[in-house]
Amino acid sequence: MVLLICASFVRVQRHNIFKKRLDVHGKVVNAPKPDAINAPKVQKPLQKHGGRLEHNETYCGSCFGAESSDDECCNNCEEVREAYRKKGWALTNADLIDQCHREGFIERVKEEAGEGCNIYGKLEVNKVAGNFHFAPGKSFQQSAMHLLDLMGFITDSFNVSHTINELSFGAHFPGAVNPLDKVTNIQKDLNGMYQYFIKVVPTVYTDIKGRKISTNQFSVTEHYTAGDHGPRFVPGVFFFYDLSPIKVKFSEERPSFLHFLTNVCAIVGGVYSIAGIIDSFVYHGHRAIKKKMELGKLS
């Protein structure tokens, strides 16, 4: 199963996201490649030609009824699938599409069965409520709804078991605890949807030298939905976050000399008191034992 990251309902400003394919044993299949969230599409020059590709002729593949204009071309399997997505049609059998059959799309999907992925990087977004998620398939918009195309997979079940190695909203500061670090969830059903509802709290940390770190803390609530619950059910891992109106400030301060002297006196006094108690206990114990020994000799 190949998981793709999708950023929805939130405008991604900049990102540095990488994906690595992993086999069933967790080993990297190929080198990591950057994801293309909100990346502009490259407009290819139109290649007009009908029918089969001949020598020294350009190729204009059919979109199989999904063309948005008479001169639109679909020269590979992905372009046919994209045309179908724009129409809102389901591509039920990709092997019947010439481009997909020629590229071995079905065989390639079968080869990737049982695979997973490792996704890492950073996202820079606006300071508004939003979500990001990891789900199988490719995302697209239709009728103001965010949908995922799952027709390219030869299965109705998706295993979205996952481990969150690290998740943070901002720079690390001393004493920070991220509640989702090292969290593992193993899916036990055919399909599952994991939802993490995150409350982000803006935080300012000031160290002893007066240097400030503007970052965030967060709390989280988990929810799991098993099985297929209709067309709105999408297998995947979803992170919904919202910003708290309250800001937390931490600051390091060096105690004054008077405070230090008071602590030293308290420590010395405590040691003296404990020493007196121990001395008294030993003294009275010794006297009691000595007295018993004297009474034993007299008798």
TrEMBL record:
Which keywords belong to this entry?
A: Membrane, Transmembrane, Transmembrane helix
Endoplasmic reticulum vesicle transporter C-terminal domain mapped to chain residues: 63-279
State one Pfam family annotation.
Answer: COPIIcoated_ERV
Coiled coil feature spans = none
The portions of this protein that span the membrane are 257-283
Under PANTHER family, the record lists: ENDOPLASMIC RETICULUM VESICLE TRANSPORTER PROTEIN, ENDOPLASMIC RETICULUM-GOLGI INTERMEDIATE COMPARTMENT PROTEIN
In Swiss-Prot or TrEMBL terms, this protein is called Endoplasmic reticulum vesicle transporter C-terminal domain-containing protein
What's the source species for this entry? Physcomitrium patens (Spreading-leaved earth moss)
